[in-house]
Amino acid sequence: MGKRTLKHSFSTAVAGIVYAFFSERNMQIHVLAAMIAVISGYILGIKRLEWGLLLITIFIVLIAEIINTAIEKTVDLVTLNYHPVAKLAKNLAAGAVLLSAVNAVIMAFVIFGPYLF
After folding, report:
1. Catalytic annotation present for 72
2. Contact (Cβ atoms closer than 8 angstroms) between residue 94 and residue 61
């Protein structure tokens, strides 16, 4: 394989993000939740540090979802048959997404709680 250009590297990365958004229902749900959180932050006038925490939290969830999708696709590529280790790999990846989503809910209470209660 030849050396790739920076433009090619970025375009393949963007293609992966676009694929995840249009092919994975959960990614669409996470993006919708992120948009609601950003709009809420704007309306409530959250502070600069809170914006930083919110953006880190959002990106952790989105990254976890993309990694989960990559693991699922790789497992599907490697085996078409049921295998307990394949199931375990998919379950572990899904568990990582769940943990990141739980973290996002906790961070929502930490960030937005003082403004709402």
Report:
1. no
2. no
